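PROTEIN DATA CARD
Card holder: Exostosin-1
Chain length: 746
Origin: Physeter macrocephalus
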Amino acid sequence: MQAKKRYFILLSAGSCLALLFYFGGLQFRASRSHSRREEHSRRNGLHHPSPDHFWPRFPDALRPFVPWDQLENEDSSVHISPRQKRDANSSIYKGKKCRMESCFDFTLCKKNGFKVYVYPQQKGEKIAESYQNILAAIEGSRFYTSDPSQACLFVLSLDTLDRDQLSPQYVHNLRSKVQSLHLWNSGRNHLIFNLYSGTWPDYTEDVGFDIGQAMLAKASISTENFRPNFDVSIPLFSKDHPRTGGERGFLKFNTIPPLRKYMLVFKGKRYLTGIGSDTRNALYHVHNGEDVVLLTTCKHGKDWQKHKDSRCDRDNTEYERYDYREMLHNATFCLVPRGRRLGSFRFLEALQAACVPVMLSNGWELPFSEVINWNQAAVIGDERLLLQIPSTIRSIHQDKILALRQQTQFLWEAYFSSVEKIVLTTLEIIQDRIFKHISRNSLIWNKHPGGLFVLPKYSSYLGDFPYYYANLGLKPPSKFTAVIHAVTPLVSQSQPVLKLLVAAARSQYCAQIIVLWNCDKPLPAKHRWPATAVPVIVIEGESKVMSSRFLPYDNIITDAVLSLDEDTVLSTTEVDFAFTVWQSFPERIVGYPARSHFWDNSKERWGYTSKWTNDYSMVLTGAALYHKYYHYLYTHYLPASLKNMVDQLANCEDILMNFLVSAVTKLPPIKVTQKKQYKETMMGQTSRASRWADPDHFAQRQSCMNTFASWFGYMPLIHSQMRLDPVLFKDQVSILRKKYRDIERL
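Structure generated from the sequence above:
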C-alpha cells in the first residue's frame, strides 16, 4: 500500500510540473515575440513608450462607486450577487440606496446657502390647489430663489401629489415630462412632494415615474421604502388644509384630571376586503359602547351592498348615532388605524383636538420622524395586539396623559397646522442635513417654540436664545443694552433724547448705550453727548429706515435690549423695575406703552386702538425690553415685503415686532406700571419727526394690522389684562418700605 501511494504522489507531481512548463513556455514565447516586435519598432523609429509600460497590467481596475440600482446599465462583466439583485429589483425606487452622501451635490449649497428653485409652470399643465399651496409656501419663504444658478434644491412645478391612476388629479405622461426638464440631472438635488401613490387593489408606493436620485417628501411612506436621512415623511392632509396660519389647538385649559368623557374613540370607514381591512374589521372586538367607542361603516363605494357582511347594517346604524366632532373633542385617546394606505386624516385631526393619537399602522414612518420624538405625543400600538390597546392606555398615569396632550398641541401649532408649516419643516430638515455643524438638536425640535423659529445660524449654543434658560439651569442676563432711535437733529442740551440717555445710563443694570442715528443731519460732535458711567456708541444708520432699529448689530453685547424712542420720558427707577420684570419673562416684550387690537364687524377687518383700558395686546417698542434674538429673527425670518412696507410708511415697525414675538411665544407681552405721562408727552411733541402728530399715522397703523395678519395667516396677538407693579405699589404704608418709591411720584 505504501508503494502505491509513493507512485501516485510521484505521478501527480510529474503531471503538475509538465503543466507548469507548458504554460510557462507559452508565456515565454509570447513575451519573446512581443520583444521582437518592440525591437523591430525601435529600429524603425516607431516606438512610443507610455507610463503604463513600466507597471504591471492588472486584469481589472477598481471601479468607482455606483449605486446597485444603476449597475444594470453598466458593463455586464461586473459581478452582482443574487441578493444584491433582489434588493435592487424589490425596491419601487431605483435610488433605493441613495443617501445624502451619494445622491446629493453639496457643492451647489456652498456658495449661496440653502436656496430653493421652483420650475416655472408649463403652459396647459393643471395644478391641484393643494400643490399650488405647496409651491406658494416655497415661493413665499426666505429660501426661495428665482435664479436656478443660485439654487441648492429644485422643486417641480408638475403636480406630483396624487399618483393614483384612478384619481381625476392624476397627471399623465409625467415620466417623459420630467425627463425633458433641462435641470433634472437624474433627479439630483430635487425634492418631490407626494400624498397619494399606487391604486386599487394593492396601493403600492410607486409614484409612477422614475424619480432617479431625487428626494421624496411623501405621506404614508413605509419604513421599508423610506430612505433614512434622505427622504422626508410628511403627514397626509386634505385639500381644505389652510395654506398659512391655521387654527390653534383645542386644548384651551390644562384641566386636571385630564380625562374626558370617552377614553378611546374612532369613527371611519370599514373595508370588507383588500389591503387595510384586517384592523378595521376587528375593531368591534374592542368597542364597548361606553368609554371605548369605535365606530365603522360599510356604506362607502358604489357597490358596497354587494360585499356587505352580517355586521354592516348594525354598524351603519350605530355609526349614524354619534357626531364625529363631539367624539373628537371629548376623548382622551383617538385611534388612528391605517386605511388603504398607511397614513390617515385622523392623525392630524387627533393632534389638533388634543386627543392623544393611538397609532395602529405597522410599518408607517411617522411624519418628520427624523426630528420629532413621537413617544412624547402619541401611543405607538401594534395591529397584531389590538385587544391589548384598552388595557394599555388605561394604565397610563394622568400626569403622563396631560404631558402627551400638551405635546400634541405644541406639535400641531409648530409643524402641522398649515401647508406652509409642513413645507417649511420639510425644508428646514433638509437644510439641517446639509449644514450639520449648525443643525438643530432634538431639544429644539421637541420644545417650544420649535425648530421653525430657532434659526441655527444665529448661534449653536442654546443659552443664546431666550427660550432655554430653565432647561439649561441658567439665570437670565443681569445687564441690558439701551438702543435709542434718534431721528431729529441735536440742537439743544435740553432735548428729551439727552435726558433719556442720562436716565438709562444711571441704571445699575445698564451695560452700554447705543444711539442709532437715523437723522438726515450729520452726526453731532462727540462733546455734545453727556458724560456717562457706561460706554455710549453712536451708530449712523446706512439706509436710515425704520427697520434698521431692529438690525442685529454686533455692537449689542448683552442679551437684553432696552428699545427707546428719542422722545420717550423714563426715569432710572422705571428702567430698573422694567428690567427686573423682564428677567422673569425673557422670551416676551416687557414695557410701558400698551395698545390693543379688535375685530371690526362692520368693516370685517382688524382695528387698532390706543384707548386706555384694562385690556391690551401690544407693548410698543418705544419703551420696552426684549431679547436681542428678536432683532435677528425680525431681519432674517420676516419677508422683505413687510419690512419694505414699514420702511415706506416710516411706521408700524413696533406693531410688526409685536406680531413676531407673539407668533413665536404664543403669549401676550407684559405691561408694567401704568404711565400716563408717556402718552401725554408723546402727544405733546411738536417736532417735525413726531409720528404721533401725523394725521395719517393712525390710519396707516390700521392698514398695517391687516397686512401683517394676512401674511401670518391668522392674528397672533393675544389679549391680556395683567399689569405688573412694584411690591407695595400705592399701598398705604411708609414710602421708606418701598424699593421703587420714585415710581409713585411720576
